[in-house]
């Protein structure tokens, strides 16, 4: 009977997770230091900024792949800081729409140049073609996982 061996450092799902954590940690400390934001809060701000007419917490969770509790805590912290405004959702009385306050818009406008600069620091040594290829590969991985084409083999 032969068994396959797995070298964690060569296992692509692990490498993807490892690299994601490295990038997230670098970005998190930059946002925390400069703006007092944790990564979930920044993600909420970014998604809300893309929806000037408002967006639900559920939609934020789906867009960012963050769980309901994480989105709820981030939104509550941002509302407490007067960065977000929670208003009624005319399409669904059971939910609310989040929009950026004036302070939230100013914060977002201050973060964007720094976010783009961080992206450039991390990916600046890649050619445009490599960046495009990496983005395409990541989107293919997303599609495979989201479409449910993964199965565990049974021995």
From TrEMBL:
InterPro entries: HTH_MarR-typ, Metal_resp_HTH_trans_reg, WH-like_DNA-bd_sf, WH_DNA-bd_sf. Residues 1-143 form the HTH marR-type domain. Keywords: DNA-binding, Transcription, Transcription regulation. SUPFAM superfamilies: Winged helix' DNA-binding domain. It comes from the Bacteria. SMART domains: HTH_MARR (SM00347). Transmembrane segments: none annotated. This is MarR family winged helix-turn-helix transcriptional regulator. It comes from Sphingobium soli. The lineage of its organism: Bacteria, Pseudomonadati, Pseudomonadota, Alphaproteobacteria, Sphingomonadales.
